[in-house]
Amino acid sequence: MDSPSATTREQPRLDDANGADEDVHQFCPQNMRLVSVLLCDSSTKRVVLHTRLISTPDKDAIVILEKSPFPGVASELIKTNVVRESMEAEPTDADYPEHKPTKRKITQSEWCADSIVSNDVYRRLYVTGGLDLVNGVDMTVIFPAEEHHFKRYRQSGCRIFQESREVYSSLIVPFLMQNPPDLSWVDNILSGKAEKDRVLSSDEDPEEGFTLVQDYRWNGRQLNDMHYLGIVRRTDLRCLRDLRASHVPLLKRLLDEGRKQLAAKYTIPEVDGHAQRLDEDQILAYIHYPPTFYHLHMHFVHVNIGENASMRAGRAHLVEEVIRNLELDSEYYLNRVMTIFMYENSPMFEAVSCTKNEKPQTQPTTKS
Fold first, then answer.
1. Could you read off the pLDDT of 80-130 as tens digits, one per residue?
2. Within 13 Å, how many C-alpha atoms sit on residue 327's CB side?
3. Where in the cell is the protein located (predicted)?
4. At the topology level of CATH, where does 156-268+276-357 sit?
């Protein structure tokens, strides 16, 4: 999720049973009109659409459709018709006459989806029917969508920028003060108003407390894609730049407790010949800089998550290394020159460029 500028708008509905059903019906294809294709990425099998709902034509929506991974368990592969059966038996066509190749007319199935998350302007649905020849599509909806949302999803070049302590204090901090982020969705999670079924634990200690919540982008199905956020209770800690040696106990507690709780939750004894195990040393923890939202949080992912732009070098800082650096120098992240990535269409990049009356010393790079 991004950190939108604070604006005056009506309070969106939070999670509830009736609202979940409302989302499923409201965001079906029959209720959407396409305005434009914002992004189509073949490598991630994702398309981002600008749409308007027929029921609310004066409001914009961003719809992100992404092909979900195939299941890795034999029973699930058979159930979803990816394969007919396992190799334990070799049936003939006579055994399964219904599987003989036939010509048949493909018709669009009835719309079928589950509402996964509804928090502030963000909704997440898992689509299982209603799209021709598609099974298992992860659908994210931002509605109503504002200009800062569109900037995030439009095609944009990426730049490398060297952020010194002076640049941070004279340019970045003033930008954040003038454009205070709307973190309503974070407050909703911490207060228990939204995503309660996705929260693994919540510690309300004002100094070292945190909430461990399943990231809205993970559908909870493939363990290798696991992604959780550990969001701290303290509101005075926004990012790496704010951390000092005095915060090491908080970081260690969040790191240790997060790993322990996740390993316990996702280690499942053998059932019907299938077991699942997650060890603490299979859980990678990192902190983004710059963060996607300015309220200190830690990412927990499976070490085998594969190619993930979220873990790109220069952006993801391993928590163990952060702790060691703070133990060596309490003001390490206050004084350090940070190599960061900025998208050319981001408000922060524009602000930095305008303030300096020239574009910062940058090197073009490709998006990953």
1. 555 667 665 444 444 444 444 333 343 446 778 888 889 988 999 888 776
2. 10
3. Nucleus
4. HIT family, subunit A (3.30.428)
